[in-house]
Amino acid sequence: MSLLRKTLQSSLSSLKQVRHVLAAPKKLSLDEFDGPSIKTDIPGPRSKELLRELNSLSTTHEVQFFCNYEESKGNYLVDVDGNVFLDIFMQISSLPLGYNHPALLKVLNDPANLSTLVNRPALGNLPPADFPLRVQNSLIAVAPKGLTNVKTMACGSCSNENAYKAIFMWYMTKQRGGAPPSPEELETCMYNKSPGAPDLTLMSFTGAFHGRTLGCLATTHSKAIHKLDIPSLDWPIAPFPQLKYPLEEHEAENRAEERRCLDQVHALFREYTSAGRPVCGVVVEPVQAEGGDNHASPEFFRELRAITKEYGAAFLVDEVQTGVGVTGSWWAHDLWQLDDPPDIVTFAKKMLGGGYFHTEEFRANSGYRIFNTWLGEPSKLAMCEAVVKTVQEENLLENVRQAGSVLLDGLKHLQTKYPTQLENARGLGTFIAIDCKGGDAHRNKILTDLKRKGIQSGGCGERTIRCRPALIFQPHHAEMVVNAMDEVLAEQA
Amino acid sequence: MSLLRKTLQSSLSSLKQVRHVLAAPKKLSLDEFDGPSIKTDIPGPRSKELLRELNSLSTTHEVQFFCNYEESKGNYLVDVDGNVFLDIFMQISSLPLGYNHPALLKVLNDPANLSTLVNRPALGNLPPADFPLRVQNSLIAVAPKGLTNVKTMACGSCSNENAYKAIFMWYMTKQRGGAPPSPEELETCMYNKSPGAPDLTLMSFTGAFHGRTLGCLATTHSKAIHKLDIPSLDWPIAPFPQLKYPLEEHEAENRAEERRCLDQVHALFREYTSAGRPVCGVVVEPVQAEGGDNHASPEFFRELRAITKEYGAAFLVDEVQTGVGVTGSWWAHDLWQLDDPPDIVTFAKKMLGGGYFHTEEFRANSGYRIFNTWLGEPSKLAMCEAVVKTVQEENLLENVRQAGSVLLDGLKHLQTKYPTQLENARGLGTFIAIDCKGGDAHRNKILTDLKRKGIQSGGCGERTIRCRPALIFQPHHAEMVVNAMDEVLAEQA
């Protein structure tokens, strides 16, 4: 039996064990609509009016329509024209429990939480009394195995930016072997010059998305429009495996492709190091999301982790989009069964605030090195705590696995039924995608037609449709999505 | 009469005119404490206990003590040991109306605002129905003259990062003269290479602070500890004027110093441009805050603005700390009376969320170039709207000018009384600072002793004490600060 298959089977059996331990999920009782209902063009007349208003104050290229968040419920998003969408994109994958979940409403209706909203503290200097307990009950309660520390941040980009800084500081602290920085380092850094601002690098992958601020953007390689015209850094970029789906039918080719990429990782470590530009870390997504839902095997990630150890570099797993249960595990990298945990794991989106988990080794060695005014926001932790509790109490990971299985089976059925239109249905949990054979235009047409049928979904990569529903998305919702897509595809055929 | 003096007088007379138009401020009726009250060591026993708890989960180098935000009121911060501080630092200058202001409590008690908190939208894609009106009533209502557009962001660093990107995009769009990007540009940018990721630069000043993410950090030059070990970009860094205070007594020297710095700005534009590394913009704070409360004259800024025009570069004013009324004007750069407004003005902190104002010219020319998942948060706009309304209704700018005048006069008196300890009292509105002659250690001792007397203040630069009270800080609070400082200085003498 191949290593890849062994790995997959071992991941599966570990999932089965989890299933075994957990009770079957309760059928969720959600206060929501029976199904989508579309009354106007999308965007409707009221949305168009608001679009004109907003456009006089701000660019609006990306606005799809305007929403009525008060009326939205569970898996259903309501727009200002009264249209009701089954939402499988959930605000770019950032709402864990759908709309107006009672557990979250309860947090914000609690007068005790009001003062943290009105008096947003400088969390690093003057935390509120309940901050340690909140961190414990929200973030640390779901900390990745082996990562005992956390820093809170406001968004995904800030999380990655600060994680990169933590890696560079860790690397230089090791280099100094306990010695303090030299006067020359302290002087030169003020002018952006070496040795104080050293010529260190961080490795990323083609197709990656880690954010849009300048440090993050140097490691983002998903779409030209994100990067065009912005000065960048010469940091190593390794090829991310381009696997064939279904993975189990292309085992040998996929293994060879992953081998090719890992060889390049080795080569880039050697090339940059010998050029005096040390590679201090590697950043990677468990599934490349914005880049087109590109998967790699647990084996690939295990070997990547081993390579970082070999070269004394940090291993940073960016779980901003893959985290919080969407793959059927809390963190996607749980499925890799690493012997050594990652050094740093970043999060945002469905955690409702950002930050990064890290090992003891990656604690900043003095004050104000990893810092900003707000460092996130305590009210986000209060909401995150409610999310963690709800996922546990309602057994939502099992729900994700069941709904995901129905959705993926349905998409696989559709790609067999419409072989000229669809291919490569793939996914973990409800983190599911499928490719459109007619490229960009074909994909966008399907997304628009789905919207007209009341399914709010999203694209990624060049020709991919991605599903990013909330954790309360259930098998019967998955069936609605598949049926709507069936109709759309039949109309195109 | 010198130009500098003319300028100052003209600024003053414009202020006077404003005063004339506005009614004298009502004496604010605030529900707050009569004065500070300190019962324990700082940090007290409960704070120490919580510090130990938090330190097992996260670094805590910067924690001063833990707070009871429910009990804090107006200008007074209450800690977990029951100590009451008169707070003139206000969460690193980020609370506009002090603690638990009724106008903000009202916003968050309004059930209509609950859904924007629970259902945080991807604002760029799916804004709520009231978003255009909210933007109008909060941000646009106080937009700097000439800047009709705004983009919302989550924090100060993201605001500057995206403003920098907007400048680079604007510059390259001009260069192309309407032509689309070349295939070579679209390909090379994916690998961080020129011409797609061009070698453009942005000028900043010694002593500046614009944030800590990698792009911002390349323009931050206030303290080595912020920059040490982080790779950076070779961008031009001009000297910021080191003026002598009081400004009116050192006119000729200060004018010469500003001339020297402006000559260097010219030289750097020429040097970088001739090296094929165009300087696309200049970023500057109206008063360098973190760098030590360094002032420059309106004349200096007017000439800087003219220089950017001359070289076809953008002029970005970072008002993250100086904005929102603290100088006695809504924006500090209002006092410069520019003929041409800045191209971009960034904000955060007291605006309660981040973003940047800009002219029509700086609108992104296509979708997803300036974008992220959340793009700020609508609930912050609802609060900002209440701040704008409260400042207007309660005439808080005039209050700031009056309280600031009492505080600055008091500090000037103290520096005369303690000439071996203090010098350089300076400020605009309540944005006030004073230097400690004994350097870092002396400054930190005074800050600690002030805390023991119930005054919560902050430091900046190497030896400066900075005052950053809320807009509801009144003359009688200023007197308390001066009296407490008098006692502290007398004990040191």
TrEMBL record, chains A, B:
Keywords: Aminotransferase, Pyridoxal phosphate, Transferase. Catalyzes the conversion of gamma-aminobutyrate and L-beta-aminoisobutyrate to succinate semialdehyde and methylmalonate semialdehyde, respectively. Can also convert delta-aminovalerate and beta-alanine. PANTHER family: 4-AMINOBUTYRATE AMINOTRANSFERASE, MITOCHONDRIAL, AMINOTRANSFERASE. It catalyses: 4-aminobutanoate + 2-oxoglutarate = succinate semialdehyde + L-glutamate; (S)-3-amino-2-methylpropanoate + 2-oxoglutarate = 2-methyl-3-oxopropanoate + L-glutamate. GO terms for cellular component: mitochondrion. The keyword Transferase applies. This is 4-aminobutyrate aminotransferase, mitochondrial. Gene3D superfamilies: Aspartate Aminotransferase, domain 1, Type I PLP-dependent aspartate aminotransferase-like (Major domain). GO terms for biological process: gamma-aminobutyric acid catabolic process. GO terms for molecular function: (S)-3-amino-2-methylpropionate transaminase activity; 4-aminobutyrate:2-oxoglutarate transaminase activity; pyridoxal phosphate binding. It comes from the Eukaryota.
